[in-house]
Design goal:
5 strands
Length: 81
């Protein structure tokens, strides 16, 4: 069974999200199976972390840890062709 959990944190005085996290199984189109994924966005500390592992071998197939301000050109922020 593939399970996952996600969360978002907001400040009490603001509706702005300052922390987002996802942990669990995520479908990989590239590998055609569920992979173990950890992803966090920490806006207060300007940090981004993403790690994807193959659950069968335990091998890390993707790892990215960088300042969130440098994490551009991904998802909907990609340049259109």
């Amino acid at each position: 069974m593939a399970a996952s959990i996600g969360m978002k944190a907001r400040s009490a005085d603001s509706r702005k999200i300052w922390y987002e996290s996802f942990v669990g199984a995520h479908w990989s189109h590239k590998f055609q199976k569920f992979m173990d994924k950890i992803r966090t966005f920490d806006h207060r500390n300007d940090k981004y972390l993403e790690q994807v592992k193959d659950p069968d071998t335990g091998q890390t197939v993707h790892y990215c840890s960088e300042p969130l301000s440098e994490h551009v050109g991904h998802g909907s922020a990609k340049n259109k062709k």
